[in-house]
Amino acid sequence: MTIKIYRLIPILLLVMTSCSGSDKEQRDIVAEWAGKEIVIPGELGFQVGNIPVDYDFDAADFKIVTYVDSAGCTNCRMKLKDWDKVIDGFKSSPDVDVSFLMIVDSDKREEIERLVKDNDFHHPVSIDSAGLFRKANPLPSKPEHQTFLLDADNKVIALGNPVYNPKIRELYARLIFDSTDGEKTLGDVEEQICRKPVRSIGVVSKGDTINKRFRFNNDTKSDLTLQEITPSCHCVSTKVDWKVLKSGEYADVEISYVADTISQQFYRYADIWFKERQNPERLVLHGFIK
User: Fold this and answer.
1) Do residues 106 and 16 share a domain?
2) Range of the domain at 268
3) pTM metric for this prediction
4) Residue 184 lies in a domain
5) Closest Cα to residue 278, out of 240, 236, 237, 224?
């Protein structure tokens, strides 16, 4: 799907002018950045936690880049727990590949790595002690304007921080998931019974086995009968000890993943099918193999 920048400008204006700041300021920012290329300097290193990773950022259909100036309260600016929820939401569909990168402009590497560890954040971070990203991309002055949704060519198709603003989050989701030509994604399921269906694993080694338990809460008025479980590949297996999930009750599904591929990002899932429902519940594991 080719996204037309000129069609997005009125939508961006509507969303952004509903926030703070003058209409003219918002219009100027949108006019300046829509369609502009964001440069990711080749010298930047990527890490998950304190582990360097080979991150092919350019390979994705969409990219979300957020810049953090570490002046002031760095932990407050990074909002790692909030970002964790947002990123996993955008990772809900295998039909569209979304990459994420947080760039932290700081020379305090140990402090940033401690914050990442303390917040259990398993997504790519670049600690930019030389300010390379800022030099390559003269950024808007306000933090809420320093996050960008990019297309496959690193061109800006939307800007604004989806952690700060739920309307921006909705806009990003619409742009990303509409690119699947209307296919139903996890985010479209209104009565989702697994509250946290996407898990970021972080960095694992080849040969490691990862086990994660997913809880299903049947808040619907009908019993749900387990029909079938279809994993994405042979390296994913599941374990359940129930056949019917009664209305008002809960049950668990355990997913096991064996990291048996080459060093790269991974995205693995299992679809849980119920006889009473048209679409499955998709349980996702994603991360990096070192």
Assistant:
1) yes
2) 190-289
3) 0.77
4) no
5) 224
